[in-house]
Write a structure and sequence with these properties.
There is one protein chain. By secondary structure, this protein is an alpha+beta fold. It folds into 3 domains: 113 residues, Rossmann fold, CATH 3.40.50.20; 142 residues, D-amino Acid Aminotransferase, Chain A, domain 1 (2-Layer Sandwich); 63 residues, 2-Layer Sandwich (Dna Ligase, domain 1). The protein has 11 helices and 17 strands. The strands form 3 sheets. Strands 6-5-4-3-2-1-7 form a 7-stranded mixed beta sheet, covered by helices on one side. Strands 12, 13, 14, 15, 16 and 17 form a 6-stranded antiparallel beta sheet that branches. The radius of gyration is 20 Å and the shape is globular.
Length: 337
């Protein structure tokens, strides 16, 4: 392992870091687990760590001594009757709203608090599946056939069928990949899936179902260099890589994936391009399905899961990098930016 230079030791001298988790979306519980993973793995020799939970009713924090704090929304300080804590850096572990869609990022930018995830513009863009895919297509990134639908639009089932065919996926446009996603095999089931997806978002994306090998690709800046992590192949027991497949053991995840060299090179090319062109920061995870040996992009997660069952920690293990060291790299990079 590379030794830290003197400047980096100064950079890391007991900075106060807030690990932020929770949020307002259906991914709240997963985010809580991710936050716990980060909180427990940060090296206390380098960091003074506070676990911050974002909820609709309150923003609260706790430290290693179980002292409780209120998080002020105006300046993101931690306050109790004894003291006020001003954070030096934030580790963002909020999946979905408001951590992955850029809302919290915008607040931290205004307050000039460094944070580990992408900036507000890039986060908002990637969280909007339709806008993100539209931009990536201009750079030649292969994607599925698609159809856009908003709540209140006239429902033309025949046009949807003609555009994407069956089977297809109905997806909430601005939601995590585990929620508001339904696979539809026949026209008679399409309207029901659309109504269910509207419970997550008023904007929908309907895509043709791609049949082929699915991979998940982590990308991060490690030691100031953008790196593609060992690729994971996903073999789901369910019809697709849904919540149960991700978090309830209903999928086999093979890391590193046994891919032909040309396939691996293509995935490296597109995942690196996406990270660079979209101006992403921290660690992200992109999903692809191979069709006719070509990786078709599905989506990118800018605040990927960090639970013990999540893909990124498994990719880091395959690379030979401990979570504590990886989290140090992310925080150091945030402090430099």
């Amino acid at each position: 392992m590379r030794y830290l230079c003197q400047d980096e030791y100064q950079l890391m001298s007991k900075k106060k870091v807030g690990v932020v988790c929770g949020g307002f979306s259906s991914e709240y519980q997963i985010s809580i687990q991710s936050g716990d993973t980060v909180f427990s793995n940060l090296n206390r020799e380098n960091w003074e760590v506070y676990l911050i939970t974002i909820e609709a009713s309150q923003w609260s924090a706790v430290d290693d001594q179980k002292n409780k704090y209120e998080v002020t929304k105006g300046n993101f300080c931690l306050v109790n009757t004894n003291k006020t804590i001003t954070l030096d850096v934030i580790f963002n572990a909020v999946h979905g709203t408001p951590g992955e869609n850029g809302q919290l990022a915008a607040l931290w930018e205004l307050l000039k608090i460094p944070f580990t995830s992408s900036d507000s513009y890039s986060a908002g863009l990637t969280f909007n599946k339709r806008d993100c895919l539209k931009l990536l297509r201009t750079w030649g990134v292969p994607t599925a056939a698609h159809y856009e639908l908003n709540k209140g639009d006239a429902l033309d089932l025949a046009q949807i069928e003609a555009t994407v065919g069956f089977p297809c996926f109905v997806k909430a446009n601005r939601a995590g990949s585990s929620f508001g996603v339904y696979k539809v095999s026949a026209k008679e089931n399409l309207e029901t899936a659309i109504e269910k997806a509207y419970e997550e978002d008023e904007q929908l994306l309907i895509e043709s179902a791609l049949e082929g090998r699915e991979v998940s690709v982590g990308v991060a800046k490690i030691d100031s260099k953008v790196e593609v992590l060992p690729i994971t192949e996903i073999l789901s027991e369910n019809e697709f890589f849904d919540y149960a497949a991700k978090y309830e053991g209903k999928a086999e995840e093979i890391t590193p994936a046994a891919l032909p060299e040309s396939w691996e090179a293509a995935v490296h090319k597109w995942s690196s391009l996406i990270y660079d062109k979209l101006g992403l920061k921290g660690v992200v995870r992109s999903e692809f399905i191979f069709v006719d040996e070509i990786p078709h992009f599905l989506e990118v997660n800018t605040v990927p899961g960090m639970t013990e069952k999540s893909i990124i920690p498994k990719q880091l293990t395959a690379r030979g990098l401990k979570l504590s060291d990886f989290f140090n790299y992310l925080l150091q990079e945030a402090l430099r930016s």
